[in-house]
Design goal:
By secondary structure, the protein is mostly beta strands. The protein has a single domain, classed as Lipocalin (Beta Barrel), CATH 2.40.128. It has helices spanning about 1-10, 155-160; strands at about 30-35, 50-60, 65-70, 75-85, 90-100, 115-120, 130-135, 140-150. It has an 8-stranded antiparallel β-barrel with strand order 1-2-3-4-5-6-7-8.
């Protein structure tokens, strides 16, 4: 039993097991994220500029947590799947999340909402995730994650200091 626990937590990500025994990309760490929303401000008729965010991914062989921090909100992963695509070296991460805006924004311009995303995973080791998101508020957009650090952050501010 101890061997299974240790393998699940640590050994699955070792290079010696990758590809032939373990087919799961290693996404662990803090990632810089750019969100490109399709939303257009109805008052100004202008699209919103890209939003900088940070994703913190903790992962074992069989589990994952994914937290996204922006200056105005936090999102947490509710469900996910990592699927091998047509080619053996292309993976896709799909997930459902809950977003909680900062309390001072709730009831003013942003409410708690749910969304989903689909991200292609590129590189071995992983160098980029890119794809799309959509929400139950009718918003949607493009996601690009391209800079990362192996350390875990607990807030937008600590992630911003970690990845410059």
């Amino acid at each position: 039993m101890l061997v299974v626990i240790v393998f699940n937590k640590y050994c699955w990500a070792w290079k010696v097991f990758r590809g032939w025994y373990v087919k799961r990309p290693d996404l662990r760490g803090t990632w810089k994220v750019e969100l490109h929303s399709c939303w257009v401000n109805p008052e100004t008729k202008e699209p919103v500029p890209p939003i900088t965010a940070y994703a913190v991914i903790r992962q074992t062989l069989i589990s994952m947590s994914f937290r996204l921090f922006t200056k105005e909100s936090k999102s947490v992963l509710i469900a996910h799947s990592i699927e091998i695509q047509e080619a053996d070296d292309l993976y896709k991460l799909v997930g459902v999340y809950r977003n909680e805006p900062n309390i001072e924004l709730q009831g003013v311009r942003s409410e708690i909402h749910y969304g989903a995303f689909s991200l292609e995973i590129h590189g071995e080791p992983v160098t980029e995730l890119e794809g799309h998101y959509w929400t139950d508020r009718g918003t949607k957009g493009r996601v690009q994650m391209s800079e990362s650090a192996r350390k875990y952050s607990n807030s937008y501010q600590s992630a911003e200091k970690l990845i410059r």
